[in-house]
Amino acid sequence: MKFTTLCLALGCTAAVCGMALQSPLFSLQPAHFQAFANVRKTLHHSWLSFFDLSPAPLGSLLDREENQAKATVLPLLPKAETLALISGAAAKYRLSAAFVTSIVAAESNFDATAVSSKGAIGLMQLMPDTAKLFGANPQVPAENVDAGTHYLHYLMMRYQNIPRVIAAYNAGPGMVDRYRGVPPFRETRTYLTRVLGFLRQFSRARRT
Description:
2 domains; globular; Lysozyme; mainly alpha; about 70% helix
């Protein structure tokens, strides 16, 4: 019984396939191939157009990346303009301009585009979290200097001692508090020496 049923099923399938192959729809004529190709091409373009999936030309992608890279590169700031920003911020936060200038010299050598390996940004090498704390965009020189000087003012009010302020700017207030003074880190002590050297230099220059 099962064998008879299987034979009937196979016979019906063969008959249906034969009729389908003889129909015009499955005629293996070049014209029909061309028609199906045109329909397929139309559907393909409609699909891409509807979902906006068509790939952008390679040239436009490269141009876009190049323009984005140019947008993130800030122009070099003239030295006179940098010193004017420093003087204005120092006066605003009642600090010595020579002191703020010394920090800038040690941190970035007056390079507004400087970015450290640790992610510190700009003239006063602000970490993003510190810049955010003072509401500044560290990539904007004026905001960078203002926030950095504001931070120095805060440290000065906290320690009332220039070496400790310099050490805290480099290593963080937590380390200064922990060691009750300048931490015994080679990097911090080298930084302190550099800033004090710049401070003497810029103080003399202002007196002459």
